[in-house]
Amino acid sequence: MEITEFIANFADQFEDTDPEEITAETKFHDMEEWDSLIALAVLNMTEKKYGKKITFDEMKACVTVENLFNVIAAK
C-alpha cells in the first residue's frame, strides 16, 4: 500500500473537494466537506480496497491523512 494511492482513494470519497487539495498533511476532520457519511465511505473504501478494517474510534483519533494511512498500514 502506497501513501500516494491511499490519498487518491481517500480524495475520491469527496464530491466537492478538489483532490489536489488533499495531501498527507491534510487535517481531514477540519475539511468543510467532512461529515459522518464521508467517514463511513472512507471506512468502506479501506475495507474494500485494502482488506483492512478499522473502527470509527481509530479514525477519529487520527489527525492527518498520513496518520490514518499509518493506522491502516499497521493492520
| SSE topology string | HHHH
Question: In percent, how helical is the residue content?
Answer: 40-55%
**Coarse structural class:** mainly alpha
Q: Could you give the count of β-strands?
A: 0
Quaternary: single chain
SS element count, helices: 4
**What coarse outline follows from CA principal-axis ratios?**
globular
What is the CA-based Rg, rounded? 11 Å
Average pLDDT, rounded to a whole number, is 96
Which residue ranges are poorly predicted, with pLDDT under 50 across at least 5 consecutive positions?
none
Sheet with the most strands? none
Determine the strand fraction and express it as a percent band.
Answer: under 5%
Distance between the termini: 12 Å
Structural notes for this entry:
The protein has helices spanning 3-11, 36-50, 56-61, 65-73. By secondary structure, it is mainly α. The mean pLDDT is 96.
Features:
4 helices; globular; 75 residues; 52% helix; mainly alpha
